[in-house]
Amino acid sequence: MPSVSIFIPTLLHDCTNGQRRLRLEATTAHDALKQLFERYPLLKVHLLDKEGKLRPHLVILSEGLPIKPFEGSDIPLSQNQELHIMQAVSGG
Amino acid sequence: MKLFVGTEKGLFVYSTSDRKSWTLSEPMLAGWEVSSVLPLKDKWLVGTTHYVYGATIRQSKDEGKSFSQCEASPSYKDNDFNVNRIWQMVKHPLTGKYYTGVAEAGLFESDDAELWEEVKSLSAHETRSLWQPGKGGLCLHTILFHPTNPNRIWLAISAVGAFRSDDGGKSWQVKTKGIDAIITDEKPSEVGRCVHKMVLHPHNPEKLFLQYHHGVYASDNAGDSWYKIEEGLPSNFGFPMAITHDEKLFVIPLESDGLRFSAEGQLRTYQFDHEAKRWYDSSEGLEGKGNYGTILRDAMTVDTQKNPGVYFGTTGGDVFARIGNEPWQRLPGSLPRISMLRVLES
Fold it and tell me: Mean pLDDT of all residues in chain B?
């Protein structure tokens, strides 16, 4: 099973015991994020809405591109793949 | 003594031993809007709100060195409401139970401040379908307790009205008789009253005061009816209201609903003369003309010292303190937009 990394937004590090990068084994992005929430359940309220979808203004990036594993478009993961949970910003 | 200042970008804490010299902390929870604080001797509870990450309660048991999220922050389960902001956290002085008021308007309770449960009697109130938000959201911002009767609790919700429970929160009665309705295109009802802040008299639990959207009111019968007390004010619009244990009642008038800055361009506090039933300018020490700031509804508080202090913070990030009858003094630092102030006395 591929070993992958998930990067956590700075403001939420108190939900992961201070860790910014989490390593786990998963075959798909959805599976990786499901494991993330099982391991750190306090993250869930910050990242998902009541319907279990990603909150607005959040994006999950894989190799620089947005993915939507909670909206029915999961992707397979490969060894050492990185998922970045990012807060979308706009304006200036 | 510590003065907690919740801002749009984090929590700041002033420390003082004499209320003359103040030391400002580094920012805590930087990046979060700190919308509410309940500082206790053994822990600090902090309502953290973020436009992306939502609203939760965090706590520190080491005076702000570290924070952790509560196990189960307030969250609606069986309805369509969402918790968008933690507005108010209080501890009942008689029962020890914790209460939190949130937007969208609702009340949550907890025995340990970790696991929060919705007070469904309020969410299911018969007027709930008529509740509408004000500019600051549909927020439950005030929770008050009777000093000797644990069953009597008051709430204030903007833009809905004042409520009272006489059975410990099992049921709630709207208490808006005498308060002018906000004119809308909805059919008039007993709700639709935009209470901005409400306070309880420190020694007479029959007396309440509230700053309304269009008026300042008092009640002599625990909220059963209200009458206006506005003589002497330059404007009846404003947000915060605070009362000290020696009955000093303060408001900070803003120009109007449409012009939410200091009335007549002057940052001024007004204090109520309970005998003459009129307000008088109590602004000595504050800056003069040319001030167009705003003071939000929770950005004024008091301490319980023998010579009580009053404190407020502005949206421009300035904090002011008035100890007893001394002139206002500006505390050091220039902070982000200030949401709320609370005091912890040692």
Answer: 95
Q: What is the pLDDT of residues B175-187, one digit of tens each?
A: 999 999 877 667 7
Domain for residue A20, yes or no? yes
CATH topology of domain B65-344: Methylamine Dehydrogenase; Chain H (2.130.10)
Total residue length of chain B: 346
Instruction: Find the residue in B nearest to A55 (Cα).
Output: B52
For the segment B84-102, what is each residue's pLDDT rounded down to a tens digit?
A: 999 999 999 999 999 999 9
Report CA Rg, chain B. Answer: 19
Could you write out the DSSP letters of every residue in chain A? Answer: --EEEEE--GGGGGGTTT-SEEEEE-SBHHHHHHHHHHH-GGGHHHHB-TTSSBPTTEEEEETTEEEBGGGTB--B--TT-EEEEEE-----
Domain residues of chain B, as ranges? 65-344
* Chain A residues with CB-CB distance to B68 below 8 A: 14
In a domain, A92, yes or no: no
- Interchain proximity A11–B66, CB inside 8 Å: no
Residue A7: domain span = 3-87
Q: What is the mean pLDDT of residues B283-312?
A: 94
- Closest by CA to B253, choosing from B230, B237, B275, B272, is B237
CB contact under 8 A, B68 and A12: no
B84 interfacial to chain A (CB closer than 8 Å): no
Cα(B57)–Cα(B40) distance, rounded to whole angstroms? 14
Residue A82 lies in a domain: yes
The ipTM value here is 0.92
Tokens of A50: 């009541």
pLDDT at A36: 96
CATH of the domain at A31: 3.10.20.30
What percentage of chain B reaches a pLDDT higher than 70? 99
- Contact list in B for residue A12 (CB cut-off 8 A) is 53
Band (A92; pLDDT cuts 50, 70, 90): low
Residue B66: its chain A contacts at CB < 8 A?
A: 14
